[in-house]
Write a structure and sequence with these properties.
The chain is 41% helix and 15% strand. The two termini are 37 Å apart. It is globular. Helix 6 links the parallel strand 5 and strand 6. It is α/β, with parallel strands linked by helices and 251 residues long. The chain folds into 2 domains: 83 residues, no CATH class; 127 residues, Rossmann fold. The strands form 2 sheets. A 5-stranded parallel β-sheet has the order 6-5-7-8-9. The longest helix is centred in the N-terminal third of the chain and has 16 residues.
Length: 251
């Protein structure tokens, strides 16, 4: 096994020397050489951090608690932070029996197991919600940003129906390096916020709202058609994706 590993390593080094392989791809291939035995139901990407700047995450919905436990175990073996999104309360209860020191937020449906110190990126991500009902999505974004090594804070319930609430937070908004704006209903808040700041604005539509909100489609279309230039829009309720995008911007 050692001889085989040595041959692979020498090939990688040779490719780098000949200019046939860039350093980032080489890191990926080096990680693949030492990858642990593959799970029978998942192929974990342990070198994602080398390529993308953030670790392998777990999408919990649709996975059994036992599968999530096995994935966490493999990720922790590498010394990486393990975080799962969309984990229901019943599944979390089983996982916490195995990892009692893990953190779980029922509102955000996020479960995380961190070990050791994590280097934080310079800069701040500010997550803003239009209403209280949008907080679970904002929390998912916050925990994801923190897992990526970012500084993240939340400002809640500053929707356009009471514009004075937003205007009272102008100083806080201007102190952010990236803004994630989470809103349901008519989805107007990102347009207003983007007209007040110079930093990147990532809009996250949520499924909050009455019948004609169409489970978030109305907010999504409003954000895609924003009259404020340069607003980036994620999928509905995708706080996770917004945080990953913000982390890429900060890096």
């Amino acid at each position: 096994m050692k001889k085989k590993t040595g041959l692979k390593l020498s090939k990688i080094i040779s490719k780098i020397g000949k200019g046939k392989l860039d350093p980032l791809s080489a890191l990926h291939e080096l990680g693949a050489i030492h990858s642990p035995e593959k799970l029978d139901f998942a192929k974990l990407d342990h070198t994602r951090k080398n390529r993308c700047g953030f670790p392998e995450f777990i999408y919990g919905e649709g996975k059994t608690p036992e599968q999530i436990i096995r994935i966490i175990h493999e990720i922790k073996k590498r010394g990486h932070p393990a975080m799962a999104t969309r984990v229901c309360k019943d599944a979390a209860k089983i996982i916490l029996e195995k990892y009692p020191s893990a953190f779980y937020d029922e509102n955000a449906k996020v479960l995380s197991v961190f070990s050791g110190s994590r280097k934080k990126l310079k800069g701040k991500i500010l997550i803003v919600t239009a209403g209280t009902v949008d907080i679970p999505v904002a929390l998912e974004a916050k925990y994801t940003a923190q897992a990526c090594g970012c500084n993240a804070e939340i400002v809640t319930d500053v929707g356009v129906a009471g514009i004075h609430r937003l205007l009272s937070k102008l100083k806080t908004l201007h102190g952010a390096d990236v803004l994630i704006v989470v809103a349901g209903m008519e989805g107007a808040l990102p347009s207003v916020v983007a007209g007040l700041v110079s930093c990147p604005v990532i809009a996250v539509p949520t499924s909050a709202g009455y019948g004609a909100s169409l489970h978030g489609l109305t907010a999504l279309f409003a954000m895609l058609n924003s009259c404020a230039n340069g607003v980036l829009v994620t999928n509905i309720n995708n706080g996770f994706g917004a945080a990953c995008a913000a982390a890429r911007i900060l890096k």
